[in-house]
Amino acid sequence: MLEKKTYLLSRATMLLSNSLFGMIIIWWLQTQTGKSSLVGLTNAIFSITAALSIFYGPIIDKHSFKRTSQTSLLVQTILLFLLTAVMFWLSHDIVLTILISTIMSMCDEFFSPADRAILKESVPSKKDLNSLISKLSMIDQVVNIAGTALSGVLLSLLIAGQSMLVCSCLSLISIFFLYIALRKIPSTKPQANDTDDKTNNYRAKVFSGLKYIRQNRFLKYYFWSCICYSFASPALIILLPKLADKLGSAGLYSTFYLCFVGGFLLGALISGKLTPTVKTIPYTWMLSTIPLLMMIFFLSNWLALSVLIALFGFLTSFQNILSESMIQITTEDAYLGRVLTTIRTSTSIGGPISSVVAGIMLDHSGDQILIILCAVFILIGGINMLFAKEAAN
């Protein structure tokens, strides 16, 4: 049985540590080298480790989800303390810093799907599972805000190495909570499937997750919708500071971000009380394009933009949480690790391209065209999910 309160504490401290790590490492690289190109390269490496998640799936499915999550978080914590030591005593070894950070990023790609897979093992009710996923989504958003704020405070009061030490200690606390939360859950391996029994070929196991998705009525449509969304999401992240800059206030950037999070949290509260069904997902997916397109007419009105961004976050929350629940419900335990990592790849694959193209478009084509293109990608994903609804009937 999962000890939910302790598990949520573990999740919160782990996410806070990750949020701080991202901010601190970028700041440290920028101040040590003065090269934005190096910062961009590091971000690209992090994106690539996420996009390659499909290759981690067979390893996750081969072992106990409990042991995988605990081990990956433990290794990540050890690397954080090692990175802290590098910052204190080897501050000019940029290559070693990026190498450790890359391995840490890979550890997180093992931890996250294994951690999510544990939920299905320990929460039998569909409604309880959806409620827990809703709470986790709310924690994710709140902790991201807290991490951003805390990193600013730490970096203004402490040097980067000391800030990274705080980050390392938070990760250590997270391990402590995680071991307590999972102590009553057996360390059992997922039951092997027929395909795995017949082959030891790693490549075949990697793509067996993709094959499983293609054969699943919900997942095969969700996979392609996620690819569409992966081109829109990074572009919208780049759009927010541009809008704030055009309105002449740096404070509006954080305001817009808080509005999105506020809308997302409200949506998470409501969606957490629902029983997840395929029918709801495509409609909330498509409806989210309405506030997005309306932004075109209010680009000079910060108040209207704030309301529309909050509404976009509200609708996005529904499709995110309900989709996550449906993934867990419709996937066999033996394939869950591979499915989650393959979906992770689909949600990340458009990131590097989208970020570059969005930056060029904002410099040359204007905000309106980028917003329209993002809405089109999201709408295509929503329309595609309508076929998932039909398949489920």
Explain this structure to me?
This protein is an all-alpha fold and 393 residues long. The chain has two domains: 4-190, MFS general substrate transporter like domains (Growth Hormone, Chain: A, Up-down Bundle); 202-392, Growth Hormone, Chain: A, CATH 1.20.1250. The chain has 17 helices and no strands. It has helices spanning 4-33, 36-51, 57-62, 65-89, 94-122, 126-157, 160-181, 194-198, 202-215, 219-246, 251-271, 280-287, 289-294, 302-330, 336-348, 351-364, 367-392. Helix 1 packs antiparallel against helix 2 (36-51) and helix 12 (280-287) packs antiparallel against helix 17 (367-392). The longest helix has 32 residues, at 126-157. The model has no long low-confidence stretch (mean pLDDT 78). GO terms for molecular function: transmembrane transporter activity. InterPro entries: MFS, MFS_trans_sf. It comes from Lactobacillus helveticus CIRM-BIA 951. It is a multi-pass membrane protein. It is found in: Cell membrane.
Give structural attributes:
393 residues; mainly alpha; Growth Hormone, Chain: A; 17 helices; globular
Sheet with the most strands, sense and barrel status: none
- Write down how many β-strands occur, each being a DSSP E stretch of 2 or more residues: 0
CATH superfamily membership of the largest domain: MFS general substrate transporter like domains
Globular, elongated, flat, extended or rod-shaped: what is the shape?
A: globular
| CATH class term of the largest domain | Mainly Alpha
Unreliable stretches: none
CATH architecture designation of the largest domain: Up-down Bundle
- The pLDDT mean sits at 78
Distance between the termini: 33 Å
Nearest-angstrom radius of gyration? 21 Å
**What is the domain tally?**
2
CATH topology of the largest domain: Growth Hormone, Chain: A
Helix content: over 70%
Count of DSSP H/I helices: 17
Residue fraction in strands: under 5%
Helical/strand content category: mainly alpha
SSE pattern, N- to C-terminal: HHHHHHHHHHHHHHHHH
